[in-house]
Amino acid sequence: MKERRHKPLRAATFPGKSNKNKSMNDDWKRFEQALVTRGRNFATVEHATNRGDVIKAAGFTDPFMVACIETEWARRAGAPKPLLSNSTPTSIAAPHLAAVSAISTVEQFYNSPSELQEGFLVNEVYSALLDIDGTFIAAEDRSTYTVSAALDATSAALVTPILAACTAHKYVANQATWLQCESPSLVAQALGEGVRQLLNVYYARVGEIRQYARSGQETRILALVLAEAQRVAQPITFTEAILRDVERTVGGALLQALCLRMCRQTGNVLGEEILSLLLRHAVKPYLGLLNSWLTTGDLNRHLRDEFMVVDTLKEGGAVHEWESKFALTMVHCPSFLQRHANVILATGKYVRLLKGCGVKLEVPDIPLEYDPADPTPLTDAIDRAHDVTGRRVLEVLWKEHDLMSNYASLKRFWLANNGDWMSNFLDAAWDLLSMPKQNVKLNTLTSLLRSAISKSSCANDTFFEGISVAFASQSLRAKIASSRGEQEGRPSVGAGQTRSGSPSYAYEYIELEISPRWPLALMLNSEVIFKYNLLFRFVFLCKWQERRLQETWFKGPVSKLRHKEIYVAYALRQQMMHTLRQLQLYLHAVVIDPLWDVFEREARGASSVDAVLVAHNKFVEEAMVRLLMKSERFKTVAKLLQSVNLFCDYGQKFSSMVVGDNAEMALPEIKSITQRCEQSFHSALGELSSAKGPELVLLQPLLSWIDFSKYYEKKSVFVPTALES
User: Which of helix, strand or coil describes residue 287?
Assistant: First the structure.
């Protein structure tokens, strides 16, 4: 609104009340004399309705004098009589308020009748409420309204309470203009529309105040106008506080700020109504972005600071697009959508997945209206969109891409459910896997792996065509520790390392890789493959150590010796082989197979992709728990494998000795090594049997199978209470 500026007030000497009354009496006498000279008297014109015209006809043209005479006329005559019985009487105060524009100086203000002074101040208040500077009330530094020092203390005290409302209106009007015309945020622009609607209501009510002031039905009109103005300005004052709180905030963060402020207004009816109106306006463009994401999977990259889902702008393949391309920014997620944030993200990604597969799907539109008092229609629409897209994606994966068969292939290869391919692979790649990994070519191992699979019962599984071999960056024990968020305090001494500084052998670091076709990649993502590789490496190490026990100690000249030391070593080897076989039996019979049955049943009954992912993740996590990979107790399992590995290393050394005195001379060393390995092996078994609580419940079948003859319990290797419980 264009502001009207006035010249600075000039100094004036204000006359006293007696002088003002004397001046008014003199003007009135001259008016009466002018009537007499024209053949009239006051009694004949007392009830005239056009008083201003009568005064001008009497020869008085100065607007200020006309206003003063008309005011005195109103005092002496009262209300004019209607011409007809059903006519509405003309207002007494109307001439006064119409004539106040005649006051142009402070001196005239103080020389005018009290009715004109009051009308003048009413006009000042009215102008200030509309952000127009007046003679006594004006905005200082174009921001804060103040009262001029030229106004007497009594009048200043009357109008001072309205100054805050005038200042609030000025700020709100400026902010509304900035939000609508200059803000780059769509949400902020929509908020500006809501603020403008509040301002329009405010202007209408201020106009009603103006009409009320013109009605002239009250004598103390200024006090009543000020009281009504403060009431009318309450919404604007409250809106000012809101806008100052969310100033320069954009997008979803702006909506969140409004939601948080609304939560603090519980019980404040006016505050709730204003915030509800502003929120309904501001949320419209946000809901438009939400609808576009949920129905087409598209985002406007130029509005990154508006919506809760952002495009990370990272380039990559289809798997990368699903895992990393889109992310949530909760700072732009309003509170009424926070519970559905992950659902919203997943739904848009489902739509993009279906578009990538060439599947057309009609997703129900999201309503572009939001009622803070009842957000159910909006959240229900989001749930429906998620349900429709989730079911369709599951149908595509289940029927067109045979999802369950691919999961079965994971179990077949990573968990050695069909173990003949692993035996073939160990036969073909034994020498390469026994070498340091830096000396082994991955392409060679991959070729041997695929050849071994093609000669096994898994030859008809087309999944293996994408399998390849890779080397992990850490040992199994270190990787499990890092997956639990721990730091491995010392180098791994599991399989492949017998002392610090020894080479990292290929068999300890071998992993399997797969590049599944899209859209199976979203189900078999990198996180899933990482967990499967932890399980695969554990299974592979058990197989490897079992094969090593078969290949060492009893080949070569040492196997022909008939000494007690050799018998003791043979007994220890049998204990280790029995333990490893029971460990593998436990892995499949107690861990993998029962959990897989549960997963398969839940997956087939799932109603969405999310339910399948949850069921599969539950299977992998529970398998890792039952194999102690989520517990400190896994260090005991690593220690058990370390003792087996050390025993095999020495067995390989003695098996390669030549026939002669060297074999006999090795007997003391064989005895010492056997005792040391046996002590380490029994120590690990004892630690394993000392488990308590849930861990003991998990390990009880394994411990029972290992010590089926009570041998270890009799030798006090096992804790007696372990098996009894």
Answer: helix
336 and 436 in a single domain? The answer is no
Does the pLDDT of residue 588 top 80, yes or no?
yes
Please report, for the domain that includes residue 624, its CATH number: 1.20.120.1900
Tell me the three state secondary structure of residue 101. Answer: helix
What digits encode the pLDDT tens for the residues 404-461?
Answer: 888 888 888 888 877 688 888 998 998 898 888 888 899 999 999 889 888 888 888 7
Judge contact between 123 and 97, C-beta under 8 A: yes
- Identify the CA nearest to 6 among candidates 90, 123, 115, 89: 123
User: Do residues 131 and 166 lie in contact, with contact meaning Cβ atoms separated by under 8 Å?
Assistant: yes
Among 242, 269, 298, the domain boundary falls at 242
Under 8 Å between Cβ of 603 and 615: yes
Q: How confident is the model at residue 586 (pLDDT cuts 50, 70, 90)?
A: very high
Hey, is 248 helix, strand or coil?
coil
DSSP for 539-605, written as a single string: HHHHHHHHHHHHHSSSSSGGGG---HHHHHHHHHHHHHHHHHHHHHHHIIIIIIHHHHHHHHHHHHT
Residue reference for tokens 């006809």 = 57
Contact criterion met (CB below 8 Å) for 350 and 390: yes
Q: Provide, for the chain, the percentages of residues in helix, strand and coil under a 3-state DSSP scheme, each rounded to the nearest 5.
A: 65, 5, 30
Going by C-alpha positions, the residue among 639, 704, 712 that lies closest to residue 677 is 639
**Residue 97 above 50 pLDDT?**
no
Considering the domain boundaries, does residue 256 fall inside one? no
d(CA 67, CA 82): 22
Among the residues of 219-375, which ranges form H helices?
221-245, 251-263, 269-296, 318-320, 341-356
Is the Cβ–Cβ distance between 431 and 504 less than 8 Å? no
> Contact, 494 vs 508, CB < 8 A?
yes
Strand pairing partners for 139?
145
Is there a contact between 550 and 429 (Cβ–Cβ < 8 Å)? Answer: no
Do residues 713 and 658 touch, judged by C-beta distance below 8 A? no
Tell me how far apart the alpha carbons of residues 194 and 282 are, in angstroms, rounded to a whole number.
7
Instruction: Tell me if 251 is assigned to some domain.
Output: no
In angstroms, the CA 351 to CA 297 distance is: 6
- Do 176 and 192 contact (CB within 8 A), yes or no? yes
Return phi, psi of residue 510, to 5°: -70, 140
* Res. 119: pLDDT tops 80: no
